[in-house]
Design a protein that fits this description.
Layout lengths: L1 E4 L7 E6 L3 E5 L4 E8 L1 E5 L4 E4 L4 E4 L5 E6 L6 E8 L1 H10 L13 E3 L3 H10 L11 H18 L4 H4 L10 H8 L6 H7 L4 H12 L3 H19 L4 H4 L8 H12 L3 H15 L1
Antiparallel strand pairs: 1-2, 2-9, 3-8, 4-7, 4-9, 5-6, 5-8, 7-10
Helix pairs in contact: 6-7, 8-10, 8-11
C-alpha cells in the first residue's frame, strides 16, 4: 500500500510512504528536495543513477526528467519528506544573496549524505501537515531561505543548480529524445522541454524519426527492456518502471505483442541458458 500526506494549507510539503516497490516520473517546474526517512530511493536520470538511504537527501533540479523508484528495505516501509522550493522564492533569495562564482556545469542532481542540519529541517516540516490555516507568506519565505542556507553550506557548488532559472530553449530533438525516451511523460511535457509547442514537436518528430512519437517511444522502451532482460539478467518487475511503463501488466502485454513472447519467458530462457552452459 502506498500513501501521500498533503495539506492544502502548506502545499510545499508532502510525506510519501509505501510498503511495496513503486515509482513514477517527473520533470518538476520547481526544485524538489527529498529527504528519505526509511527504505530506499533510486533516482534514474538520462545519464546517471543515484541511491538514497535513510537519512540521505537528494535535490531534484527543475526541468530535468527523472524516474523515482521507492523501495521498502530491511522489512521497513519506504517513507520520505518532499519539499518543493518555489522558483519565485528561490529567485527572491538570490536577489539578496549573490550566488557563488560560476563553475563548470556538473550533474544537476545533488546528493547529500546524512546531516543533522537536514534532519532538523525535515523534522520541522512535519507539523506543517497539521496546519488549519494557510502558511503565512513571510514564514514560507523564511523557511525557504533556511533551506537555501543549509544546502549552500553543505555543498559550496550547489548554486550552479539552485540559481539556474533558465527556461528550456529549442533543443536538438533527436539528441534529447534519444537521451530521455525512457521517461513516461506526456507528449506535452516532452515538447515543452525541447522548447516547442506540441504541434511543432509532433511535426519535427515525424520529420526526424518517420514515426509518430508514441510508436517510436514504445519501440525504444521495449528494445531497452529486451536488452535489460536478455543481457543484464534483470526481472520484469525490476525494470518496467525504469523503461517507461506505468504498470507490469501493460508492460507484459506490449512486450508480448511486439516480440511474440512474454518478458517472463525471455527472462526464464536466459536463466535456463546460463544454467546449461555454466
Amino acid at each position: 500500500m502506498t500513501s501521500k500526506q498533503l495539506n492544502r494549507y502548506a502545499e510545499i510539503v508532502a510525506v510519501c510512504s509505501g510498503d511495496q516497490r513503486y515509482g513514477g516520473e517527473l520533470a518538476p517546474d520547481d526544485h524538489i528536495l527529498v529527504g528519505v526517512l526509511a527504505g530506499e530511493l533510486k533516482v534514474v536520470q538520462s545519464d546517471r543513477m543515484c541511491y538514497c538511504g535513510p537519512g540521505e537527501t537528494v535535490l531534484l533540479p527543475r526541468k530535468q526528467p527523472a524516474t523515482l523508484l521507492k523501495y521498502p528495505k530491511d522489512a521497513v516501509a519506504y517513507q520520505a519528506v518532499i519539499l518543493k522550493l518555489p522558483t519565485a522564492l528561490v529567485r527572491a533569495y538570490y536577489t539578496e544573496n549573490a550566488p557563488a562564482p560560476a563553475r563548470p556545469a556538473g550533474p544537476g542532481l545533488l546528493h547529500f549524505p546524512k546531516s543533522p542540519l537536514l534532519a532538523s529541517l525535515f523534522t520541522s516540516l512535519l507539523p506543517y501537515l497539521e496546519l488549519k490555516q494557510r502558511l503565512p507568506e513571510k514564514l514560507l519565505a523564511v523557511k525557504i531561505a533556511e533551506v537555501m542556507e543549509i544546502l549552500r553550506s553543505l555543498d559550496p557548488h550547489s548554486d550552479g543548480v539552485l540559481a539556474d532559472f533558465s527556461e528550456p530553449g529549442k533543443l536538438n530533438l533527436v539528441e534529447f529524445m534519444e537521451a530521455n525516451y525512457m521517461f513516461n511523460m506526456p507528449l506535452a511535457k516532452f515538447s515543452y522541454l525541447t522548447g516547442r509547442s506540441l504541434t511543432t514537436f509532433k511535426r519535427d518528430f515525424k520529420k526526424a524519426f518517420q514515426l509518430s512519437p508514441q510508436r517510436w517511444l514504445t519501440q525504444k522502451r521495449l528494445a531497452l527492456a529486451h536488452y535489460q532482460l536478455a543481457e543484464k539478467s534483470r526481472k520484469p518487475v525490476e525494470l518496467y518502471l525504469e523503461v517507461g511503463f506505468e504498470n507490469l501488466a501493460h508492460f507484459s502485454y506490449a512486450f508480448k505483442k511486439h516480440f511474440g513472447y512474454s518478458p517472463s519467458a525471455l527472462a526464464g530462457s536466459r536463466v535456463h541458458h546460463l544454467a546449461t552452459t555454466g
